[in-house]
Each structure stands twice: as structure tokens, then as C-alpha cells.
Amino acid sequence: MSTHEPDQPEQPEQPAPPNPYAQPDQHAQPPQQPYPPQGYYPPQAYGYQQPMYPYYVQRTTSQKAIWAMVLGIVSIFGTACFYIGGFAMGIPAIVLGVIARKEIAASNGQQEGGGFAVAGLVTGIVGLVLNLLIVGFLILVFATEGFGDPSWDY
């Protein structure tokens, strides 16, 4: 007698699991999913890695802006006290204020202190104008009164 084995249905051939140690196929496309899972960020461009923490840029205050403000304030007090502070401190305050504003604008947010620079400009200009007014007044007084006026002699 012949033994006849019952016909078993053929099972489709299962693909072999991928070898984890094999080199990846460079031309193979990864399987595409219709939507990424929640919390998944798409891959970034080559060479860019997303930081693990928020990126913080430490901003510095412009030293020229601070010095412009200090010199401008000193020019006002120097004019009020010594009559020469406007020239000696006001002009450098104006120059430093202009330079500081240009550097702050060109720093792309790396430097701050625009308010200090403007304060230096304004106080430097005020000190210079006060000094010019005081010096002009003194010249006017001494030129009109004169030192050798005989009516002042006793």
C-alpha cells in the first residue's frame, strides 16, 4: 500500500529577518508611513543636529556705549563746574555713541546697549552746547565790559 500524505496547503515563504550586522543597502528606500508618529520630528538636513536644550545666545552690553554715556554725563557736570567739560568729555561721548550704535546694529543681536549709546549721544551734545553757551556768554561779557574801562577806576 502506498501511503499518501494528505496535501498540506503551501505556506507562503516568509522573508528572512534582516541581518543586524550587514551593511545597509545604499539604494534601498526606507518604508514610508503616511503620517509620522506623535512626538516624532522629521530628520533635519545633513550636518545639522538639533540641540537637546534651547539654544541661548549670551548678549553682551557694548562697553563703548557705556563709556559714551559716562563721558556725556561727566561733560554736563564738567561744564557746570569747570567750564571746559563740554569740550573735553562731550566730543568723545558723541564719537563713542555713534560708533557704539553702529556696532550694536551690525552685531545681529549679539550686543545690546543701544539706550546707553543714545544717552551718551544726547548728554554729550547737551554738555557741548552748554559749554559753547557758557564760553560764548563769558566772551561777550568780557568783550563788552572790558578790563581797562576808566569808569571802574576809583
Question: What is the typical, i.e. mean, pLDDT?
Answer: 79
Strand order of the largest sheet: 1-2
Category from helices, strands and their pairing = mainly alpha
Using only C-alpha atoms, the radius of gyration works out to 41 Å
Structure, described:
The chain has 154 residues and is mainly alpha-helical. The chain has helices spanning 63-82, 85-106, 114-145; strands at 60-61, 111-112. The chain is rod-shaped. The protein starts with 59 loop residues before the first strand and ends in a 9-residue tail after the last helix. The mean pLDDT is 79.
Q: What's the gist of this structure?
A:
It contains three helices and two strands, in the order βααβα.
Key descriptive features of the protein:
48% helix; 3 helices; single chain; mainly alpha; 154 residues
Helices and strands in order, then pairings?
Blueprint: E1 60-61, H1 63-82, H2 85-106, E2 111-112, H3 114-145
Helix pairs in contact: 1-2, 1-3, 2-3
